[in-house]
Amino acid sequence: MFVLASGDASYMIKLLYKYTIFGQEFYLTTTHVAMIITTVVMLGFFIAANISIRRAMASDVTSPGPFLNIVELIVEKLDGISAGGMGEHASKFRNYIGTLFIFILFNNISGIFGLRAPTADYGVTLCLGVITFCLIHYNGIKKNKLGHFTALFKPIPILFPINFIGEVATPLSLSLRLFGNVMSGTVMLGLWYGMMPLLFTLGIPAALHCYFDLFSGAIQAYVFCMLTMVYIEDKIGD
What we know:
7 helices, disordered N terminus
């Protein structure tokens, strides 16, 4: 995965193809390919789940089967995350939070399957942070109207610069936290594969992948979603 014949460390950052549209250059990298693969896998899973649910609803005598049981378990857990973080407002945001969690988790753990984790690219995590930032303030304006902006001057007007910087820093803190943790795992694994003797690249990396890709990836997906819910709840909570 990360091994180079020269013994140097590789972080799987590669330019695969360059093309020009209307005079503007665009690049296809390993990050794009990995994201396309994970997105196709997720869509395939969602379509299969939708078909299974429709078949189960069409016939009450049909046994749910193991696949549908897994789908129901996933939905219950995601609903539990939303309910635990947002309480009575969970029903409005559980679809977004659930989709966000699955998307980040799939991309975080893609390194186990030999892909470069897309969330190790700051361009990906920044977009997630900006989307969440827009959602936070959209709901804040929708709920509090003008009060959403006057809150920046509380408790005293002189604190406006600090409050403003705190709001603007939200997408940066969200995106940098996710990017930093995923990228650090990519770097550690790249160093191990590139610098250690061949004997030590067999077996031992499996434990490293379990920690950096699976365990840490799941934790970071949960943290990103939990912070998103906290920020939204702070704006719309009574």
